Structures are given as C-alpha cells and as structure tokens.
Amino acid sequence: MVHIIINAKGGIGKSFVSSLITQYLMDNTKSVIAIDTDPNNTTLLNIKALNAHFIALFNEEGKFERSKFDKLMELIVQKNNDHFVVDCGATTFNPILEYLQENEVIEFLQSQNCEVIMHIPIVGAQAQEETIKGAMKIIEAFNCNFVIWLNGYHGKIERGNKKFDEFEEYQAMKSKLKAVIQLSQVPEDTTGKDLELMTRSNLTFNEAIESGQFNIMSKQRLKIYKRDTYEAMAIAF
Fold it and tell me: Residue 81 pLDDT more than 80?
C-alpha cells in the first residue's frame, strides 16, 4: 500500500501527518518505508527513529528530475513492504502531480496490486479555502482512495455555522473518501507546547514519552493525544 501525503499549501501539517502515519503503522508492527521528498524541510528524514529515505527530486539547477521518481516507483514495486509513506512538500507539489498524471502512476500501481491512498491535510483559519481548493484539484485528478485530514491546530474548519461535512466541496468529494480524520485543536499552552517540542526535537511519541526533556504531565498529555489520534486513524488503516 502506498500513502501519498500531498497538498499545494506549505505549513499545513503534511510532514506531521506523514510522521503520524509512519508511527501508527510501525506501532502496529507493519513493514514501512518512509520517503521524504521535500528539499526545503526534511522533517520526516530528521526523525531518526522513522528511518526515512530522502529522494532529491530536483537537480542543482532546480529542475525536477523525473528519473528520480522513476526509481521510487521501482522501489515500490520491487520491495515486499506492507506500506510506503511518501511525504510531498509544497515545492514538489506541481511536478509530482504532473508526473503522476502523465505516467498514469496510480493506475500502474493498482495494476501491480498495490493500493494507493492519497492523504490530504486541510486546515482552518487563513489557509482554509486554499487547502480545500487544493484538495478538490487532487481528488478530481485521480481515481483512488482519499483520506482528508482536518487539522484544527490553527483554527476550526468551518464556514459560519457550517462544519466541514456540510460544505459543498465535501458533498462533491465524499464518494471517493476512505475516511475523514479529525486532528483536534489542543490548548496552545499545554499540549500545543508539548507537540511543538516533540516536533522540534525530531522525536516520535514513544521517544518523547521516554525522554527526560518532558515532565510527567507533558508525557501524560502526549499519551492522550497519541491514543486519541490513533483511535481516529484506525478507520483508514
């Protein structure tokens, strides 16, 4: 199974979602290969416990090298792993989208008995409409399963009194959705700080909970967040 985490907007939690997926699968004893493609922010690669691989998709002149993505496709087909997690950065969005379409990659992988799931984060606040627009573009372009991640870290995803499942866009995409996963807003001064320190320190949940960097209650909050998030994720895996 191939998990592609993608949206055009940067800073919306794609790498965080990629990390969550990888950790969830590893904690459930799945064989996972994590791939980081973001040249500007190698978040996934920096979390050493995830053993992520970095694929440089751009050459020194800043040109997208399709041959590098060809090698990734070969790796996916040849390796007998349960799951691949591919973190696509904002700078790689357009060339990766073009590559997937031009080469009919989704159809090819499906023909190799490899299920493809595209994971698309949507955020609240100022970037909400841009991330919804990006999600619609992706879902309209491909025929596979999709998982929407509602990332409420920066604000609720709503329009007036309407929640996401009442949006016109949701009604248009819901037939292609495998799941909608809610990443809830957390108190900024407690759980928010704990998650920020964990991310900044390039730690997994398990490492943070065992680390001396966190006090007893910080560890407790991380345990709760991990448990609740994993429970929400279970419907998609």
Answer: no
Report the b/e string of 41-63 with b at 16+ CB within 10 A. Answer: bbbbbbbeebebebbebeeeeee
Q: Which helix (H) or strand (E) holds 33?
A: strand 32-36
Beginning with the edge strand found earlier in the chain, give each strand of the sheet holding 32-36 in spatial order: 53-54, 32-36, 83-87, 2-5, 116-123, 145-151, 177-183
Distance, CA of 211 to CA of 219 (rounded, Å):
9
Report pLDDT for 82.
85
Read off the pTM.
0.95
pLDDT value for 80: 66
Domain with CATH 3.40.50.300 in the chain: 2-185
Domain covering 2-185 assigned CATH 3.40.50.300 in the classification: yes
Long-range contacts of 176-180 (CB under 8 A, 24+ apart): 176/139, 176/143, 176/144, 176/145, 176/146, 177/145, 177/146, 177/147, 177/148, 178/117, 178/145, 178/146, 178/147, 178/236, 179/147, 179/148, 179/235, 179/236, 180/147, 180/148, 180/150
Q: In Å, how far are 59, 78, 134 from 64, measured between CA atoms? A: 7, 24, 21
Cα distance between residue 142 and residue 6, in whole Å? 13
pLDDT on residue 99: 93
pLDDT in tens, 192-206: 999 999 999 999 999
What is the reported pLDDT for 40? Answer: 81
The token duo for 79 is 């390796």
How many H-runs (helices) and E-runs (strands) does the chain carry? 10, 9
